[in-house]
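In this section we walk through a basic example: taking a raw amino acid sequence and producing a predicted 3D structure, encoded as discrete structure tokens. The instruction is simple. Fold the sequence below.
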Amino acid sequence: MRLRSCASLVLALAALPWTLRAQEISEGNYVRLSAGSTAPVNPSGTLRDWDHGTGFALSWENWESVGGGSPRAGFGIAADYAQLPLDERQFISTFQTGQGARASSATATSTKVWTIATDLRLRIPMPVIMPTVNFGFGIIDFHPSSVHYVATDGTSGTAAQKGRTGAELSIGAGIDRQIAGPVAAYVEALYRYGFTSVGEGIAAPGSACLQAGGCDALRNTSFGLIRGGLRVRVDR
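The resulting token sequence is shown next.
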């Protein structure tokens, strides 16, 4: 569903009638609703134990022109939420119990990642589509789930990972295409970097990692996002 949805939106944009007139956006307030894929980028520490997952985003933005003409920049507030499933193979490769036994299997509910940020979108005038360059600044919260494991010596237990919270910066690009009336379709790709170098790694008593520093959560977090959805004007 994640990447397929984004690909379907791209095809829909391409199938719309072409026009030589530049795509513009009217002054006013807009709401964006989207879904897509969220994936750790070059993960370190405990973030390595989590795979790419599904993310959702909701944002409000305002576009106002300066000196007349179509607006060139939009400012808004956005919130997004993602669920990252456990990467069992990665967890098993780096985890051992206090008695030195390796984990043979592991399960966990999806980890949650929340972000609330202010957004700035800069419009690039172009026919047919409306490309934008996007910047964001806000707060990110990485809240990992506890991992339940079974060790090779027959014992079982839980590895509790500490969460991380910090400031985040994001940069990306998107493409909007008007569909009808106040509704437009859009796709975008973002790189998000969270300054979350606080907290601990696996904190269950007697737990350890095979590699030195492998459980260290004193690292920043980075994610790549690909998503698509609808932009709707909410005033007239």
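Looking at the output, two observations stand out. The chain has one domain: 2-233. The first strand starts at residue 28 and ends at 40. In the next section we compare this with other chains.
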